[in-house]
Amino acid sequence: MDERKRDSIVTYLQRRMAEFGITQEAIAASIAEDQRGLNSVRYRDAFGNGWDGQGAAPQWVVTATSAGQSLEHFAVPRAAEVPASRHAGVNWREDPFAGSRLATIKPEYRQSS
Fold first, then answer.
1. CB neighbours of residue 32 within 10 Å
2. pLDDT tens-digit profile of 70-109?
3. Of 74, 71, 105, 70, residue with least CA distance to 87
4. Most buried of the four, 46, 66, 103, 107, by CB within 10 Å?
5. Residue 59 C-alpha from the chain's centroid
6. Which residue blocks in the chain are alpha helix, DSSP H?
């Protein structure tokens, strides 16, 4: 995105925030609250429905478990359980091929210079 377009978008957003009385602190608090909500979800289905495991189970959980699906099938992995990325060695800022198959070439296939 070029600088002029970015500045235009920022100006537009600042004007709309002022129009509705939204502060930067309110946005930061809202984002933090959303993150806390996302982190508290213990079970999620393919449609994005979530449940924190507290209280009565929502209908999608009842339906799935009644059909024989295990509740653990819907478990959301915690940060410690998430496997390391297979692209961990890729420098995403400097590599022009980052994110493509070319960034995943194994060192033994690279030609030495």
1. 10
2. 999 999 887 655 555 555 665 666 666 666 666 555 555 5
3. 105
4. 103
5. 25
6. 3-20, 24-40, 59-66
CA-CA distance, 95 to 84, in Å (whole number)? Answer: 19
Residue type, 22: I
Q: How many CA atoms lie within 13 A of 35 on its CB side?
A: 6
pTM over 0.85: no
CB contact set of 90 (below 8 Å; sequence gap of 6+): 98, 103, 104
Q: What DSSP designation does 75 have?
A: B
Sorted by where each begins, the domain ranges of the chain are: 1-40
Alpha-carbon dihedral of residues 88, 92, 98, 104, nearest 10 degrees? -20
Distance between CA 52 and CA 42 in Å, rounded? 5
Angle at 51 between CA 35 and CA 24, to 5 degrees: 20
Give every CB contact of residue 61 below 8 A, 6+ residues apart in sequence: 43, 51, 71, 74
Number of neighbours of residue 43 by Cβ within 10 angstroms: 20
